Amino acid sequence: MTLLTLVRAPRRAAGVLGRAVASVRDDLDAAVARDPATDSRVEMALASPGLHAIWTHRVSHALWGRGHRLPARLLSQAARAATGVEIHPGATLGRRFFIDHGMGVVIGETAEVGDDVMLYHGVTLGGRSMEPVKRHPTLGDGVTVGAGAKVLGNIVLGHGAQVGANAVVTKDVPAMCVATGVPAKVRACEPGVDPQHALYDEPALWI
């Protein structure tokens, strides 16, 4: 080990720690902004099972990516037991992701979740294939999925899409559109219409 390596190691460690702290702060701010039941970072950090599951996943995902698959799975199972949220360590989660309430959420191995996404309790990002391929959904940035919804298969929810409570989605949902029902159908997808405002025009989307 060279002297240069010894000098650089603390800097790398400080950089990693700084990024981790910034990520936690981002997650907390996003959670507080989306949860009207609290305005406290401390309360959210201590009492949000969704955040605890996400933070544990970030560690298990890092282990998974380094080839430590059994420890990653064991850590994810411990998080499931503690929070009621099951996130496979292979899943990819974006920044400022928030799971409200948490209980019953399942996110499969090949799921990809963008930035600023929000899931409510009972949501499944599941597969429709037994083959070892990309078999779980991809969620773009700013997607919201309502309580009890099932998003199944290698499909894409475009950025800003909204999925109604208890919907079963098996086909792509275009960006900035609203999908509700069983099977889910696109209910609102008009230029210039904010899907968040469409919540109030479509009772099935209430979450």
Automatic annotation (TrEMBL):
Belongs to the transferase hexapeptide repeat family. It comes from Ornithinimicrobium cerasi. Pathway: Amino-acid biosynthesis; L-cysteine biosynthesis; L-cysteine from L-serine: step 1/2. GO terms for cellular component: cytoplasm. It is an enzyme of class 2 (transferase). Its EC number is 2.3.1.30. InterPro entries: Hexapep, Hexapep_transf_CS, LbH_SAT, Ser_AcTrfase_N_sf, Ser_O-AcTrfase, Serine_acetyltransferase, Trimer_LpxA-like_sf. SUPFAM superfamilies: Trimeric LpxA-like enzymes. This is Serine acetyltransferase. Transmembrane segments: none annotated. The keyword Repeat applies.
